[in-house]
Amino acid sequence: MYDFAYKNDFLSKIPAKVSVSSLHPGVVTEDEYTAQALKEIEMAPLPRFLEETVEKDAALSGTATHLFMQFADFEYAEVFGSEAEAENLLGNGFINEAQYSRIKFYPIDRFFSSDLYAKIKSAKRVYRETPFNLRVSVGDFVGDGIPDVPQSQIPIERRAGVVAPYMNNNDDYILIQGAIDLFFEDKNGKIYVVDFKTDQVHKPDGDKILVRRHKRQLNYYCKAVSEILSKPVNGAYIYSFALGEAVPVV
């Protein structure tokens, strides 16, 4: 029997391919960010079975809202309201009855009266639900933080921001996959990325919580868009349905 510990064993935890929504820390899935949001909201303690119900309902509502934003005719929703457009989506099979019942229409209608939507509406080009594959060097990926690997388990010379030179070998890549909610080119040719979030955050610190959770995700979106369009990205926003406002990220 060999008793041997590979000194770079932590590298085996780096996957060859990841979904952008599964990255940790800083990027969380719908179920996970719902749980985190509930922990950060000051509220009276609930029995665990009720907490699980609240978390599940919030996640399902968030999923329904994202489906609406994926398929909706924005111009129709702006004029006739999100509920009328949701009825169209239901009738045409884009969403089902359960999803329709979980959509919160007032927060969506606020989006269509926002300054960000006005910019989108006046844009030269708008791209929605765009899939991407982004190659990222292992060195850059580790520099952003390794998913599910505590920093204490990574040799100090290879922790985030201090990556050993051999890890920047051009042959060492991982593939990041995902879909970008929306990006647009404005009248001046500038490019902006938009990500819709339903995290249940609140003022005054909700915007900071969103940036902390999702900045890494938005950074990858910006890199992907820059490659797709062969142009630099000028900025990125999280549109928070809970806050009713756009939060600048990068």
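The above is record 1. Record 2 follows with the same two-line structure.
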Amino acid sequence: MTQSPCFKMSAAFVAIVLLICSFCHAQVGASPGASKAHITIILVGDSTVALEGGWGPGFCAHVSSDVACIDLAANGRSTKSFIDEGRWQKALDLRADFYFIQFGHNDQKLDSKLHTDPATTFSSNISRYVSEVKAIGGTPVLVTSLSRRNYQDGQLSMDPLSDYAAATRAVAAEQHVPLVDLYRLSTTLLRTMTQEQADRMDAPVHPDAKAVGRTQAAPDRTHLNDHGKKLFGQMVVEETRRQIPVLRSYLHIE
């Protein structure tokens, strides 16, 4: 399998790359109409999707050569700040075919620049993402938050991310769009593990932690190392193949 790279770059440069990729794809093929149409998948979200410590690279590693998989997720962002900083508009300007959208971790924070309430502002923001993707002719795919990996007395701890996952499910049902319930899938897997086993997926000190001055190698239990990226990236791929049949020929599993 020829793997498509996972990019993270400015929107303007990405647009140039996509133009070049589309031209190259049009020039390569056995005969006219013999190959599948080139498609673009964009990932948006927080650090649990982004390149440094998220499942995005593991997902993009499984796309076929005629797919541009672009990871625009950004560390420390919420549904609110991703819009407020103009990142969402830049993603829309690329007019991709599919947008995978996952938020929640930073929406929980009390910082006024980030915080949203799962039942109100978070749901409203997610609905906006969905509506605006539909408006440009794309397909929104909602993804519930990746579970944190904290255990107590040998059991996976309850995570308030569950409220944001429930809100994401509700919007997906209301708006009739595909859902990858990563929170449910990751939680189910983690409940079969111990803390020690789950910590084998732990990232080194993440840029988010460095930003607040944490440099010691304390357990992260939110972000992913290469093993975790591969594991949860493939999990998203497998569920996408189940939920979105049109993408099955573009997404390959080992």
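DSSP finds ten helices and eight strands in the chain.
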